[in-house]
Amino acid sequence: MDQGNVSRIINDSEIRLDWSIYDLNKLPGEDRRAAAEAGPDQPGIVHENKGELLPEVILLGRCNVGKSSLVNALMSNNRQSATPYAKVKQSAGYTPCLNFYNVGGLFRLVDSPGYGVKGKPWQGELTMQYLAERRELRNCFLILNGDIGLNKYDELILEALVEMGVQFDIIFNKIDKIKNNSRIQHYEELISTSILNDLKIKPRIYFANSIESDLKQRTGINEIRYGILQSCGYSDLQTLKPRRRRKTINDTIEKIKEKNARKSLKGRVKINLQRDIH
């Protein structure tokens, strides 16, 4: 994995929320398709959503699995604390619709409503319609609770993805809830005893922890970013140039901190060398 360029691309990318969608026919691309299917005599759909079509990936997960926190980590600058693009709340069900985040003009990351006990039927219908009909969709990342494993709602979603023929990968989140010395055994047993073991086409599996306070301690983020870029058809990362984010006061502060840290490190090395010489 080209970790350096993966970090550069996301760190440099301008991030913006393009659309919050409650009706798939109000999504750019779908409006024209709906009008074409309706025929020339039917009035076209007029709405305020505009923008170029880009490759899209969607994150799915049951309520309170840490999906929005993961969305924030994936789009944030590695050198700073996570930026709250997606709203996070301790109680479940805080993402009400499909939110489309434009990442550097390269792709859109779609945050979906959580499914399960707290999910609403219309939210599930909207998400399923998107998965079945959206032509810009390149991959689906299904987030599973790495601590307690799959439940019946996760299994239903997996079965639906297979039946619809939607490409998907798996992210086990919250792996820090499992002790380091038992993680391998835990996930081997979890996968071998679940519906994942019965899949004919095996998805890629990623592992991420749930540390939110410091991105430098968050594991698995660059691997997932790399998977997203690959899914969207970007292979030559070295020459890939996103639409750059505007510099903020936080960027300036972080650069000053990094510069001072390097100076301090050089000073300590110089002092240690002088001590060794004498």
Your description of this structure?
With 278 residues, the chain is α/β, with parallel strands linked by helices. It has 2 domains: 3-246, P-loop containing nucleotide triphosphate hydrolases (Rossmann fold), CATH 3.40.50; 249-278. 37% of the residues lie in helices and 15% in strands. The protein has 8 helices and 7 strands; from the N terminus they run αβαβαββαβαβαβαα. A 7-stranded mixed β-sheet has the order 1-3-4-2-5-6-7, with helices on both faces. The radius of gyration is 21 Å and the shape is globular. The relative contact order is 0.17.
Task: Give a short overview.
The chain has 278 residues and is α/β, with parallel strands linked by helices. Helix content is 37%, strand content 15%.
List the topology elements.
Blueprint: H1 3-12, E1 15-21, H2 30-38, E2 56-61, H3 67-75, E3 98-103, E4 107-111, H4 121-133, E5 137-145, H5 152-164, E6 168-173, H6 183-192, E7 205-207, H7 221-231, H8 249-277
Parallel strand pairs: 2-4, 2-5, 5-6, 6-7
Antiparallel strand pairs: 1-3, 3-4
Helix pairs in contact: 1-7
Query: What is the 3D form?
Result: globular
Low-confidence blocks of residues: none
If you average the pLDDT, what whole number results?
85
Number of domains: 2
Q: Element order, helices and strands?
A: HEHEHEEHEHEHEHH
CATH superfamily of the largest domain: P-loop containing nucleotide triphosphate hydrolases
The CATH architecture classification of the largest domain is 3-Layer(aba) Sandwich
Decide which structural class fits the backbone: alpha/beta
